[in-house]
Design a protein that fits this description.
The structure is a single chain. By secondary structure, the chain is mainly alpha-helical. It has one domain. 42% of the residues lie in helices and 0% in strands. It has four helices and no strands. The protein has helices spanning 22-37, 55-67, 73-84, 97-116. Helix 1 (22-37) packs across helix 3 and helix 3 crosses helix 4.
C-alpha cells in the first residue's frame, strides 16, 4: 500500500481567527453542516471571519477521537443533539445532568485535539472573565426598553 500524502487546502491570505473553544468550533461546524444540507458551499475563508480550518476538520477530529475510543456513541449523540438545538445541556435539570457530563467530557477531549491543530486558541475561552485580557468597549449603550 502506498503512503498517503496529504496536501493542505489553501486558505486566503487574510488573517485567520482561531476559535476560542471547542464548543464554539462545534457549534460552527453544526451550523455549516445545516447550511450544506440546504445547498450552500461552506469553506473556511468564505465569510468575513476567516477560520483556520474547514468544517470537515472539526468532523475529522471528532471521528478520530471516536476511533481512539476517547468518545463513544453516547458522547456523539449528545453533541449532535445539542449542536442542532444550539445550546449546551443544562446541569441544573436532573434529566440533562448526565448529558451535561458527557458534553463536558466530549468538549474537553475535542479542545485538546483542536488546540494541537491550532484551530482553537489555548486559554481564549477564559479571556472574557479576566480583566487583564478584556477589551474595553467604547460607545454608548442605551438602556433596554421593555
Amino acid at each position: 500500500m502506498s503512503e498517503q500524502r496529504l496536501f493542505p487546502k489553501p486558505i486566503a491570505d487574510r488573517v485567520t481567527t482561531p476559535f476560542s473553544s471547542a464548543m464554539q468550533a462545534w457549534f460552527w461546524f453544526v451550523r455549516c453542516q445545516a447550511s450544506r444540507i440546504e445547498g450552500a458551499r461552506v469553506v473556511a475563508d468564505a465569510s468575513d471571519v476567516v477560520r483556520p480550518c474547514d468544517p470537515d476538520d472539526i468532523y475529522n477530529a471528532v471521528m478520530r477521537l471516536r476511533r481512539e475510543n476517547v468518545l463513544d456513541d453516547r458522547h456523539l449523540q449528545v453533541i449532535e443533539y445539542y449542536g442542532l438545538v444550539e445550546r449546551t445541556p443544562d446541569p441544573r435539570d436532573g434529566r440533562e445532568k448526565p448529558k451535561y457530563d458527557l458534553w463536558c467530557d466530549a468538549m474537553a477531549a475535542l479542545q485538546e485535539a483542536l488546540i494541537a491543530r491550532d484551530i482553537v486558541l489555548p486559554g481564549a475561552e477564559d479571556a472574557f472573565h479576566h480583566p487583564e485580557k478584556m477589551i474595553k468597549m467604547t460607545g454608548e449603550l442605551p438602556p433596554c426598553r421593555l
